[in-house]
Amino acid sequence: MRILVAPDKFAGTLSAVEAAAAIAEGWRRQAPADEVDTAPMSDGGPGFVDVLNAALGGDLLAVTVAGPLGTETPATILMAGGTAYVESAQACGVHLTGGDNGENATTYGVGQLVSEAVAAGATRVVLGLGGSGTNDGGAGMLAALGAAADVPLDRGGAALEGVTEVDLSAPRAALAGVELVAASDVDSPLAGLFGATKTFGPQKGIAEERLPWLDGVLEAYGAATDRRLALEAGTGAAGGLGFAAMLLGGSRVPGIDLVAEAVDLSGRAREADVVVTGEGAFDFSSRAGKVPAGVAAVAAAALRPCVVLAGQVLVGSREMRALGMDSAYSLVDAVGEERAFADPAGALADLAQRVARTWSR
Q1: Residue pLDDT, tens place only, 183-192
Q2: Which domain of life is it from (predicted)?
């Protein structure tokens, strides 16, 4: 049989590349005659550059940028032809803030990454959005590219209070002739009930009682730049980084679709007999733009069954089938929580071996 293994990262334990290798190892133990094809996936969040590097090759450019709280942090840009792939989480990820201080965290380092990519000769910059610890509407990114305003743009969302004017002439000039693409799975607008602050603010350490105020600050920031654009789907991605990208003329594409096209997921699925995907927690959030749902859609279009291996499975069989998956298997249920976290690669390989007993003829 031919097996396509296309998982996302298992957040906090395994990268997508590591997860794919573990699943492939376990499957081959049980079915050594099977042909196992690995295609690590990403929706634009952490691991975006690693996944595309594994698929596309290219050159990795190592840089140092400002982290979300001002500390210098290393990052990597993937240069493939005239396109630069940039992972915003490397410069402003929640792992760099510890899930705290989201009011003051800045996306300045993301702007530095974009600037470095352009300086390296990129005529197209694809910015992977996801996993951010920031909530500044992308103001920090704009500041790093030369934007100016009547309030500081590089000190986080809270510092935007009172903003009435933002001059974007410098960043627009800096990106003249450069195509900017935001790769994201988030459909939230910049502000409002379903906006960046109220939807994702709590997981970035923003206190419940501060959410309405900070949401109002981002609403005013949107009004000072482009009120209509701020209402568009995706502008709330990565704490508003999606908004900043669109202010500079950028377009938005679902991250999973961009990666699927880059790795030729459709073609590889047509060559497979079974498609295997996975992620850390297979839950209701997996429905909207996440890797398992995207992989399942590709498998369905190729008329191939899709199986999910996840750290935890938190949806029932009816919901799972509605998402296009034939079966879902929980790592925690199979090996226990202690082993799942102590030896994630070994535990995932063991689970894949068990699953192969059912799915490999």
Answers
A1: 998 889 999 9
A2: Bacteria
